[in-house]
User: Which sequence fits this backbone?
């Protein structure tokens, strides 16, 4: 290599190293063992930290921040407890490391952005933001932050799942109705409409639509088993959780309408 070219290359390497050392938005180190999944004081400085912080704000207050994209009376935190930091409560911790992954419903490999788009389509009964939007990037940044230290292409652990194996016996919906009246109606109301701003609707026109993960009995049963009722999580038996979930899902809810999806990238191959 000529001396002049080598000097130029050396200058570029040194300059880049100096820039990286000064920048507040360098890649974060893995979270030390035992630290909270989300600690605002530990966020990177600068735009990356701002984006992570905004992503959490979206998760906690989705309807206010992204009103145009949300059709249901729901925030992400309704299914992702404590901003997606609670084990068995819709935890986001490690989620970014599980993508890309093959999705049976889409019949293709999807990215984290695709999965977030599905959440807006189904759970929010709305439409996803553009993949390059400030909001989508912030959600990605927040989940990436919660996933720091988890090796890429990892397999989700038990704490990331609340899906359970269902028994062969059919649920007792009548018993589920009595469990609902005793344990759930005080927050979600007898008509399932919830209390706006406090407790999400479980059925009806303002709830999640039929394509949402929570519309599947194995998912709702597991979520209820680990997290409900809110004032005494884990106090319901498996049978109570199974039956009350079946009762909730026996009611009408919005049907997913594919043409509500608005984004630049192609539609997933197949939603049904």
Assistant:
């Amino acid at each position: 290599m000529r001396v002049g070219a080598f000097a130029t290359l050396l200058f570029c390497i040194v300059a880049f190293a100096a820039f990286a050392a000064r920048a507040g938005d360098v890649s974060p180190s893995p979270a030390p063992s035992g630290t909270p999944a989300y600690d605002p004081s530990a966020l990177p400085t600068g735009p990356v930290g701002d984006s992570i912080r905004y992503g959490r704000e979206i998760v906690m207050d989705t309807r206010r921040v992204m009103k145009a994209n949300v059709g249901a009376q729901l925030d992400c935190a309704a299914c992702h407890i404590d901003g997606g930091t609670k084990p068995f409560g819709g935890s986001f911790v490690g989620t970014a490391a599980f993508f890309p992954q093959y999705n049976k419903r889409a019949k293709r490999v999807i990215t984290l952005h695709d999965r977030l788009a599905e959440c807006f389509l189904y759970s929010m009964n709305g439409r996803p933001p553009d993949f390059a939007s400030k909001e989508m990037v912030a959600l990605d940044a927040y989940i990436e932050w919660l996933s720091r230290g988890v090796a890429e292409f990892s397999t989700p652990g038990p704490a990331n799942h609340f899906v359970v194996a269902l028994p062969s016996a059919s649920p007792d919906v009548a018993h589920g109705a009595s469990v609902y009246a005793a344990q759930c109606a005080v927050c979600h109301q007898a008509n399932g409409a919830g209390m706006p701003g406090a407790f999400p609707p479980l059925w009806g026109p303002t709830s999640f639509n039929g394509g949402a993960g929570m519309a599947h009995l194995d998912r709702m049963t597991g979520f209820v088993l680990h997290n409900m009722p809110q004032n005494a999580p884990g106090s319901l038996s498996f049978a109570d959780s199974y039956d009350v979930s079946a009762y909730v899902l026996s009611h009408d809810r919005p049907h997913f309408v594919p043409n509500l999806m608005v984004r630049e990238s192609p539609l997933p191959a197949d939603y049904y």
